[in-house]
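wait is this the right file?? whatever heres the structure
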């Protein structure tokens, strides 16, 4: 029996069916998208180690995969999750008891001589900040089952990415609608972004958080461990970063007539913390990939509201991919113009010969 659709209609309906089914799959898994995104990031981070151990040292592939998964769980996932939970919990404490924040605002107003905002606005900002932090950071206390499912999916995907690496990479090359050169550029952009915004930035943020926490502790700032945690996450923001933590702390010291301590915080912040930040970024950029600060900053603003904490990496990556694809589009258009001119010249030559 003949099909009622033409070949062109069949192709259009096939593509439409694929898009619709993919839409249902994405909608169904959107709550767990962070698991697959996290698996992809860890795959990029540990792939050089995987190749070194399995190809150069000839270790068993399954053993290496399990060891890398355990290493990432112990060194990256669990510490980051615990840190996030402690931070969110402390922010919620401040949200329930905002008087300390109100006192800090009053001290800043005395130090600067400017009326910053009303007490009602401060209370609202603290409450909204607690709500925002709870949404962006993984919360074990808020949903143990979800956390376990996400973690299970992450490592399930990561396991098969490593164990079926060749099949996985061939599938990407086969089904992504790009030439090999474009795929190489996208892969290089992914590697640079992950290295710069995960490994490199995590090192920079950790060092700055330790220095900020120690500085505030030495100069008698209350709760230096909490502000050190804040500094860790603030350090991911280019240009602004940790000055958003130790700057107000110095102003508060000045407002309390503790000029020596305030000056000490400012000197350590400007001379040590900022310069350490610049030095580490220069050193790590040469080793781990250099991403322009404007791309990182804009990507963070774009990515965090959509992807949560993983937006620190995914946001800049999306912008980098957009730039790469725009360059590919420009290159292909330029090539088509050259080919069009060559065809016109060829036609003119044939016309003259005829």
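ok assuming it is, sequence goes like this
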């Amino acid at each position: 029996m003949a099909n009622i659709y033409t070949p062109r209609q069949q192709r259009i309906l096939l593509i439409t069916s694929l898009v619709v089914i993919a839409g249902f799959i994405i909608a169904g898994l959107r709550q767990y998208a962070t698991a697959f995104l996290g698996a992809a990031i860890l795959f990029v981070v540990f792939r050089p180690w995987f190749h070194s151990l399995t190809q150069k040292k000839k270790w068993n592939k399954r053993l290496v995969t399990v060891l890398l998964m355990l290493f990432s769980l112990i060194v990256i996932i669990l510490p980051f999750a615990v840190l996030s939970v402690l931070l969110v919990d402390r922010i919620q404490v401040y949200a329930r008891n905002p008087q300390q924040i109100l006192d800090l605002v009053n001290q800043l107003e005395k130090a600067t001589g400017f009326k910053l905002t009303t007490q009602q606005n401060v209370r609202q900002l603290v409450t909204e900040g607690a709500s925002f932090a709870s949404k962006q950071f993984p919360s074990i206390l808020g949903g143990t089952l979800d956390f376990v499912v996400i973690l299970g999916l992450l490592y399930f995907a990561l396991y098969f990415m490593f164990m079926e690496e060749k099949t996985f990479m061939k599938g990407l090359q086969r089904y992504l609608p790009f030439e090999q050169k474009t795929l190489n550029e996208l892969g290089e952009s992914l590697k640079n972004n992950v290295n710069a915004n995960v490994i490199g930035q995590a090192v920079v943020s950790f060092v700055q958080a330790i220095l900020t926490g120690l500085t505030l502790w030495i100069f008698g700032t209350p709760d230096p461990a909490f502000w050190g945690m804040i500094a860790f996450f603030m350090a991911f923001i280019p240009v602004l970063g940790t000055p958003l933590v130790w700057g107000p702390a110095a102003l508060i010291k000045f407002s309390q007539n503790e000029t020596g301590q305030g000056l000490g915080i400012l000197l350590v912040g400007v001379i040590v913390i900022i310069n350490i930040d610049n030095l580490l970024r220069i050193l790590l950029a040469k080793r781990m990939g250099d991403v322009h600060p404007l791309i990182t900053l804009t990507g963070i603003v774009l990515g965090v509201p959509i992807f949560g904490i993983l937006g620190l990496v995914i946001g800049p990556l999306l912008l980098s991919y957009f730039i790469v694809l725009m360059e590919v589009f420009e290159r292909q258009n330029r090539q088509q113009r050259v080919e069009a001119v060559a065809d016109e010249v060829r036609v003119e030559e044939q016309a003259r010969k005829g």
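The chain has a mean pLDDT of 76. so i think its the right one actually
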